[in-house]
Specification:
single chain, mainly beta, four-stranded antiparallel beta sheet, 1 helix, 2% helix, 46% strand, globular
Protein backbone atom coordinates (compact mmCIF):
# COMPACT_ATOMS: atom_id res chain seq x y z
CA UNK A 1 0.00 0.00 0.00
CA UNK A 2 1.11 3.57 -0.66
CA UNK A 3 0.46 6.56 1.55
CA UNK A 4 -0.21 10.22 0.88
CA UNK A 5 -0.88 13.23 3.11
CA UNK A 6 -4.06 15.15 2.45
CA UNK A 7 -4.39 18.92 2.55
CA UNK A 8 -5.61 18.59 6.12
CA UNK A 9 -2.55 16.51 7.07
CA UNK A 10 -4.67 13.41 7.39
CA UNK A 11 -2.65 10.37 6.43
CA UNK A 12 -4.42 8.45 3.67
CA UNK A 13 -3.50 5.01 2.41
CA UNK A 14 -4.27 3.63 -1.04
CA UNK A 15 -6.06 0.34 -0.46
CA UNK A 16 -5.81 -0.83 -4.06
CA UNK A 17 -4.01 0.55 -7.14
CA UNK A 18 -7.04 -0.34 -9.27
CA UNK A 19 -8.89 2.76 -10.48
CA UNK A 20 -12.65 2.40 -10.74
CA UNK A 21 -14.71 4.43 -13.16
CA UNK A 22 -17.25 4.92 -10.36
CA UNK A 23 -16.38 3.14 -7.13
CA UNK A 24 -19.27 2.66 -4.69
CA UNK A 25 -20.92 0.49 -2.01
CA UNK A 26 -17.94 -0.33 0.24
CA UNK A 27 -18.47 -2.49 3.32
CA UNK A 28 -16.22 -4.33 5.76
CA UNK A 29 -16.94 -8.04 6.10
CA UNK A 30 -16.19 -8.92 9.75
CA UNK A 31 -16.05 -12.69 9.32
CA UNK A 32 -13.76 -12.56 6.30
CA UNK A 33 -11.85 -9.47 7.50
CA UNK A 34 -12.05 -8.17 3.94
CA UNK A 35 -13.20 -4.95 2.27
CA UNK A 36 -15.78 -5.11 -0.53
CA UNK A 37 -16.64 -2.42 -3.08
CA UNK A 38 -17.85 -2.21 -6.68
CA UNK A 39 -17.43 -0.27 -9.91
CA UNK A 40 -20.82 0.59 -11.40
CA UNK A 41 -19.96 1.28 -15.09
CA UNK A 42 -17.03 -1.15 -14.88
CA UNK A 43 -19.54 -3.93 -14.01
CA UNK A 44 -17.24 -5.38 -11.37
CA UNK A 45 -17.22 -6.27 -7.69
CA UNK A 46 -14.01 -6.30 -5.66
CA UNK A 47 -12.88 -7.65 -2.32
CA UNK A 48 -9.52 -6.96 -0.73
CA UNK A 49 -7.51 -8.52 2.04
CA UNK A 50 -6.18 -5.21 3.30
CA UNK A 51 -3.58 -6.92 5.48
CA UNK A 52 -2.06 -8.88 2.58
CA UNK A 53 -2.71 -6.28 -0.10
CA UNK A 54 -4.49 -8.79 -2.38
CA UNK A 55 -7.60 -7.94 -4.42
CA UNK A 56 -10.10 -10.26 -6.13
CA UNK A 57 -12.35 -9.18 -9.01
CA UNK A 58 -15.76 -10.55 -10.01
CA UNK A 59 -17.31 -9.48 -13.31
CA UNK A 60 -21.05 -8.77 -13.34
CA UNK A 61 -23.47 -9.17 -16.29
CA UNK A 62 -24.70 -5.58 -15.86
CA UNK A 63 -24.02 -2.54 -13.70
CA UNK A 64 -24.11 -3.26 -9.96
CA UNK A 65 -25.56 -0.34 -8.01
CA UNK A 66 -25.15 -1.62 -4.46
CA UNK A 67 -24.70 -4.83 -2.46
CA UNK A 68 -24.60 -6.27 1.05
CA UNK A 69 -23.35 -9.44 2.73
CA UNK A 70 -25.87 -12.15 3.55
CA UNK A 71 -26.26 -13.77 6.95
CA UNK A 72 -25.93 -17.30 5.57
CA UNK A 73 -23.01 -16.43 3.29
CA UNK A 74 -22.57 -14.76 -0.08
CA UNK A 75 -24.06 -11.49 -1.24
CA UNK A 76 -27.25 -9.76 -2.24
CA UNK A 77 -26.57 -7.54 -5.27
CA UNK A 78 -28.72 -4.93 -7.02
CA UNK A 79 -27.92 -4.95 -10.73
CA UNK A 80 -29.41 -2.78 -13.45
CA UNK A 81 -32.33 -5.10 -14.08
CA UNK A 82 -33.09 -6.51 -10.64
CA UNK A 83 -31.94 -7.78 -7.27
CA UNK A 84 -29.95 -11.02 -7.16
CA UNK A 85 -28.57 -13.43 -4.60
CA UNK A 86 -25.19 -15.20 -4.84
CA UNK A 87 -24.55 -18.06 -2.42
CA UNK A 88 -20.83 -17.31 -2.40
CA UNK A 89 -18.17 -15.31 -4.20
CA UNK A 90 -18.29 -16.12 -7.92
CA UNK A 91 -21.37 -18.33 -7.61
CA UNK A 92 -24.39 -18.04 -9.98
CA UNK A 93 -26.71 -15.08 -9.54
CA UNK A 94 -30.30 -16.01 -8.62
CA UNK A 95 -32.98 -13.37 -9.15
CA UNK A 96 -34.78 -12.29 -5.97
CA UNK A 97 -36.83 -9.37 -7.22
CA UNK A 98 -37.52 -7.08 -10.16
CA UNK A 99 -37.99 -3.39 -9.36
CA UNK A 100 -40.63 -1.21 -10.99
CA UNK A 101 -38.68 0.93 -13.45
CA UNK A 102 -37.42 0.84 -17.04
CA UNK A 103 -33.79 -0.43 -17.03
CA UNK A 104 -33.27 1.06 -20.47
CA UNK A 105 -32.62 4.44 -18.87
CA UNK A 106 -32.68 3.78 -15.12
CA UNK A 107 -30.53 1.67 -12.82
CA UNK A 108 -30.02 0.88 -9.17
CA UNK A 109 -27.73 3.10 -7.15
CA UNK A 110 -26.89 3.48 -3.46
CA UNK A 111 -28.28 0.95 -0.98
CA UNK A 112 -27.67 -1.32 2.02
CA UNK A 113 -29.42 -3.50 4.59
CA UNK A 114 -31.17 -2.40 7.76
CA UNK A 115 -30.58 -4.12 11.11
CA UNK A 116 -33.56 -6.41 10.49
CA UNK A 117 -32.00 -7.86 7.33
CA UNK A 118 -34.09 -6.07 4.69
CA UNK A 119 -32.22 -4.77 1.61
CA UNK A 120 -32.89 -1.13 0.68
CA UNK A 121 -32.12 -0.05 -2.90
CA UNK A 122 -32.28 3.40 -4.47
CA UNK A 123 -32.49 4.28 -8.16
CA UNK A 124 -31.28 6.97 -10.54
CA UNK A 125 -32.43 8.20 -13.95
CA UNK A 126 -29.35 8.15 -16.16
CA UNK A 127 -30.75 10.77 -18.54
CA UNK A 128 -30.86 13.24 -15.61
CA UNK A 129 -34.02 14.67 -17.20
CA UNK A 130 -36.55 13.20 -14.75
CA UNK A 131 -36.87 13.66 -11.01
CA UNK A 132 -38.00 10.08 -10.45
CA UNK A 133 -35.49 8.47 -8.09
CA UNK A 134 -37.12 5.96 -5.76
CA UNK A 135 -36.23 3.87 -2.72
CA UNK A 136 -37.26 0.21 -2.48
CA UNK A 137 -37.21 -2.21 0.44
CA UNK A 138 -36.71 -5.91 -0.35
CA UNK A 139 -37.75 -8.27 2.45
CA UNK A 140 -36.91 -11.97 1.96
CA UNK A 141 -37.33 -13.09 5.57
CA UNK A 142 -40.64 -14.83 4.98
CA UNK A 143 -41.39 -17.94 2.98
CA UNK A 144 -42.08 -17.58 -0.72
CA UNK A 145 -41.06 -14.72 -2.99
CA UNK A 146 -39.30 -11.69 -1.61
CA UNK A 147 -41.62 -8.79 -0.79
CA UNK A 148 -40.80 -5.48 -2.50
CA UNK A 149 -42.16 -2.20 -1.13
CA UNK A 150 -41.58 1.24 -2.67
CA UNK A 151 -40.79 3.41 0.36
CA UNK A 152 -40.01 6.66 -1.48
CA UNK A 153 -42.08 7.13 -4.62
CA UNK A 154 -40.57 8.05 -8.00
CA UNK A 155 -43.07 10.91 -7.92
CA UNK A 156 -41.43 12.47 -4.86
CA UNK A 157 -39.27 14.82 -6.93
CA UNK A 158 -35.89 13.26 -6.05
CA UNK A 159 -33.21 12.84 -8.73
CA UNK A 160 -30.40 10.60 -7.47
CA UNK A 161 -30.74 8.16 -4.57
CA UNK A 162 -27.74 8.37 -2.25
CA UNK A 163 -26.63 8.72 1.36
CA UNK A 164 -28.71 5.84 2.73
CA UNK A 165 -27.93 5.02 6.36
CA UNK A 166 -29.69 3.99 9.55
CA UNK A 167 -29.05 5.51 12.97
CA UNK A 168 -27.31 3.46 15.63
CA UNK A 169 -30.64 2.80 17.39
CA UNK A 170 -32.44 2.08 14.07
CA UNK A 171 -34.92 4.89 14.78
CA UNK A 172 -33.80 7.27 12.01
CA UNK A 173 -33.37 6.68 8.28
CA UNK A 174 -31.12 9.03 6.29
CA UNK A 175 -31.33 9.47 2.53
CA UNK A 176 -29.71 12.03 0.25
CA UNK A 177 -30.86 13.54 -3.02
CA UNK A 178 -27.45 14.41 -4.46
CA UNK A 179 -28.38 17.04 -7.10
CA UNK A 180 -30.43 19.06 -4.59
CA UNK A 181 -27.47 19.03 -2.14
CA UNK A 182 -29.75 17.74 0.60
CA UNK A 183 -29.66 14.93 3.15
CA UNK A 184 -33.09 14.07 4.51
CA UNK A 185 -34.03 12.23 7.69
CA UNK A 186 -37.17 10.31 8.63
CA UNK A 187 -38.40 8.74 11.83
CA UNK A 188 -38.07 5.00 11.20
CA UNK A 189 -39.92 2.07 12.74
CA UNK A 190 -37.51 -0.89 12.59
CA UNK A 191 -40.30 -3.45 13.02
CA UNK A 192 -42.60 -2.23 10.25
CA UNK A 193 -40.08 -0.27 8.12
CA UNK A 194 -42.51 2.66 8.17
CA UNK A 195 -41.06 6.14 7.59
CA UNK A 196 -42.55 9.37 8.90
CA UNK A 197 -41.74 12.98 9.82
CA UNK A 198 -39.51 13.78 6.85
CA UNK A 199 -37.15 16.67 7.57
CA UNK A 200 -33.90 18.23 6.32
CA UNK A 201 -30.90 16.80 8.13
CA UNK A 202 -28.19 18.69 6.23
CA UNK A 203 -28.29 21.05 3.26
CA UNK A 204 -25.23 22.21 1.37
CA UNK A 205 -24.57 25.26 -0.79
CA UNK A 206 -25.22 24.64 -4.50
CA UNK A 207 -22.43 24.57 -7.05
CA UNK A 208 -21.56 28.15 -8.06
CA UNK A 209 -22.41 29.07 -11.63
CA UNK A 210 -19.44 28.46 -13.89
CA UNK A 211 -17.61 26.37 -11.28
CA UNK A 212 -14.85 24.13 -12.65
CA UNK A 213 -12.67 21.61 -10.86
CA UNK A 214 -9.66 23.91 -11.35
CA UNK A 215 -11.26 26.41 -8.96
CA UNK A 216 -10.99 23.82 -6.18
CA UNK A 217 -7.70 25.42 -5.23
CA UNK A 218 -5.23 23.38 -3.13
CA UNK A 219 -4.84 26.20 -0.60
CA UNK A 220 -8.37 25.74 0.72
CA UNK A 221 -9.36 22.33 -0.54
CA UNK A 222 -12.04 23.96 -2.64
CA UNK A 223 -14.29 24.30 0.41
CA UNK A 224 -14.47 28.08 0.14
CA UNK A 225 -15.50 27.78 -3.51
CA UNK A 226 -17.63 24.65 -3.54
CA UNK A 227 -17.91 22.05 -0.80
CA UNK A 228 -19.47 19.36 -2.97
CA UNK A 229 -22.76 17.47 -2.81
CA UNK A 230 -23.72 14.50 -0.62
CA UNK A 231 -23.06 11.03 -1.98
CA UNK A 232 -22.71 7.72 -0.07
CA UNK A 233 -22.78 7.58 3.74
CA UNK A 234 -22.45 5.53 6.90
CA UNK A 235 -23.19 5.89 10.63
CA UNK A 236 -20.70 5.24 13.44
CA UNK A 237 -21.24 3.66 16.87
CA UNK A 238 -21.99 7.06 18.43
CA UNK A 239 -24.70 7.75 15.87
CA UNK A 240 -22.69 10.26 13.83
CA UNK A 241 -23.44 10.44 10.10
CA UNK A 242 -20.44 10.35 7.71
CA UNK A 243 -20.99 11.39 4.09
CA UNK A 244 -18.70 11.62 1.06
CA UNK A 245 -18.95 14.99 -0.70
CA UNK A 246 -18.76 14.50 -4.47
CA UNK A 247 -16.60 17.19 -6.13
CA UNK A 248 -15.93 18.58 -2.66
CA UNK A 249 -12.70 16.65 -1.95
CA UNK A 250 -13.90 15.83 1.53
CA UNK A 251 -15.80 13.59 3.93
CA UNK A 252 -18.09 15.24 6.49
CA UNK A 253 -19.05 13.89 9.91
CA UNK A 254 -22.31 15.13 11.44
CA UNK A 255 -23.68 14.62 14.94
CA UNK A 256 -27.17 13.10 15.21
CA UNK A 257 -28.59 16.62 15.68
CA UNK A 258 -27.09 17.76 12.37
CA UNK A 259 -24.09 19.66 13.77
CA UNK A 260 -21.00 19.40 11.58
CA UNK A 261 -18.29 17.74 13.68
CA UNK A 262 -15.48 17.29 11.17
CA UNK A 263 -14.55 17.82 7.52
CA UNK A 264 -11.73 15.54 6.39
CA UNK A 265 -10.03 16.68 3.20
CA UNK A 266 -9.06 13.89 0.82
CA UNK A 267 -6.71 13.83 -2.18
CA UNK A 268 -9.77 12.91 -4.27
CA UNK A 269 -11.88 15.42 -6.15
CA UNK A 270 -14.89 13.09 -6.14
CA UNK A 271 -15.15 10.81 -3.10
CA UNK A 272 -18.28 8.71 -3.54
CA UNK A 273 -19.03 6.62 -0.44
CA UNK A 274 -17.62 5.74 2.97
CA UNK A 275 -17.65 2.84 5.40
CA UNK A 276 -15.91 2.05 8.68
CA UNK A 277 -14.01 -1.21 9.02
CA UNK A 278 -10.83 -2.92 10.06
CA UNK A 279 -10.44 -5.12 13.11
CA UNK A 280 -11.55 -2.35 15.49
CA UNK A 281 -13.91 -0.65 12.98
CA UNK A 282 -11.88 2.56 13.21
CA UNK A 283 -10.57 2.59 9.66
CA UNK A 284 -12.49 4.93 7.36
CA UNK A 285 -12.62 3.64 3.77
CA UNK A 286 -13.54 5.98 0.91
CA UNK A 287 -14.38 4.98 -2.67
CA UNK A 288 -14.12 7.51 -5.48
CA UNK A 289 -14.93 8.32 -9.09
CA UNK A 290 -12.41 8.31 -11.89
CA UNK A 291 -14.75 9.19 -14.74
CA UNK A 292 -13.14 12.39 -16.04
CA UNK A 293 -11.37 12.14 -19.41
CA UNK A 294 -9.44 15.33 -18.62
CA UNK A 295 -5.69 14.69 -18.58
CA UNK A 296 -5.18 17.83 -16.49
CA UNK A 297 -7.70 16.69 -13.89
CA UNK A 298 -6.15 13.22 -13.78
CA UNK A 299 -2.75 14.80 -13.22
CA UNK A 300 -4.11 17.01 -10.43
CA UNK A 301 -5.93 14.08 -8.76
CA UNK A 302 -3.91 10.96 -9.65
CA UNK A 303 -5.73 8.80 -7.08
CA UNK A 304 -9.15 9.36 -8.66
CA UNK A 305 -10.99 6.05 -8.79
CA UNK A 306 -8.94 4.47 -6.01
CA UNK A 307 -10.13 3.34 -2.60
CA UNK A 308 -8.40 5.22 0.23
CA UNK A 309 -8.36 4.72 3.97
CA UNK A 310 -7.45 6.63 7.11
CA UNK A 311 -7.74 6.05 10.84
CA UNK A 312 -10.45 7.80 12.87
CA UNK A 313 -11.26 8.00 16.58
CA UNK A 314 -14.83 6.71 16.57
CA UNK A 315 -15.58 3.08 15.70
CA UNK A 316 -18.18 2.14 13.16
CA UNK A 317 -21.05 -0.30 13.45
CA UNK A 318 -20.83 -3.86 12.09
CA UNK A 319 -22.32 -4.04 8.61
CA UNK A 320 -25.98 -5.02 8.48
CA UNK A 321 -26.50 -8.37 6.74
CA UNK A 322 -29.23 -9.61 4.41
CA UNK A 323 -31.60 -12.11 6.00
CA UNK A 324 -33.01 -14.92 3.84
CA UNK A 325 -35.72 -17.40 4.71
CA UNK A 326 -35.64 -19.28 6.99
CA UNK A 327 -34.70 -16.76 9.70
CA UNK A 328 -31.84 -17.87 11.91
Amino acid sequence: MTTTASLADTLWQTVSPHRCQLGESPFWHPQEQTLYWLDIPGKQIFRANTYMGSVETWNMPSEPGCMAPAKDGGLVIALRDGVFRAADWGEPLVRLATLDYDPAHMRTNDGKCDAQGRFWVGTVDETRSLQNAALYCIDARGSGAAHVACKISPRSGMSTANGLAFSANSRTLYWADTPSHTVWAWDFDPLTADMSAQRVFARFAPKPEGWQWKSAAPDNGGHGVYGGRPDGATVDAQGNYWVAMYEGQRVCQFAPNGTLLASLTTPLLCPTMVCLGGEDLKTLYVTSAGLSPSAAEQAAYPLSGCVLSTRVKTAGLPVNVFQDWPPG
